[in-house]
Design a protein that fits this description.
By secondary structure, this protein is mainly alpha-helical. The protein has eight helices and no strands. The termini are far apart.
Length: 157
């Protein structure tokens, strides 16, 4: 808890916060980092394998194989979310399972599943973007800012 918030607490509340902090289990940061690295790497390796398959057997070139690869990764992540497998992977891998495409697909699918009892329009359609909305907004604003910076520093385009 930040120090400025601790000042507003009573002495008993401050004592309790200190006691709670001492009893809090230590997080295994090194182990979590290794797991995230391995899981993210495996997801990226699978994506690279899918892309290479599109290039070799699908007749795509390096540039055009990206879009179907992303689509396949989204489908795989969505199916694994529906089956409840992706949640188990995410629990073990932590941040490594939030590699943008698969993590985003998991967020959308799990939110849609959670609200399906409210109906297709008001449940799935309306609430699906509840978790993903901030990601979409941040991505759009970031892309706009990077585009403006690129335009400012490289005006030949």
């Amino acid at each position: 808890m930040p120090n400025n918030r601790m000042k507003n607490l009573t002495p008993v509340q401050q004592e309790y916060q200190e006691l709670a902090k001492q009893e809090e289990p230590k997080r295994p940061l090194f182990r979590n980092s290794i797991r995230a690295f391995l899981a993210g790497g495996v997801i990226c390796l699978i994506g690279q394998g899918i892309q290479e398959a599109f290039i070799r057997w699908g007749g795509f070139d390096q540039k055009s194989a990206g879009n179907p690869t992303v689509a396949v990764l989204i489908i795989i992540a969505t199916i694994l979310t529906i089956l409840g497998v992706y949640d188990k992977i995410a629990q073990w891998a932590g941040a490594g399972s939030t590699v943008p495409v698969t993590g985003f697909a998991n967020t959308m699918a799990s939110s849609a599943l959670e609200h399906k009892s409210e109906g297709m329009v008001l449940g799935v359609g309306a609430r699906m973007f509840e978790l993903a909305g901030p990601v979409i907004v941040f991505g759009t604003v970031s892309a706009f800012a990077v585009g403006i910076l690129h335009w400012l520093f490289n005006p030949t385009i």
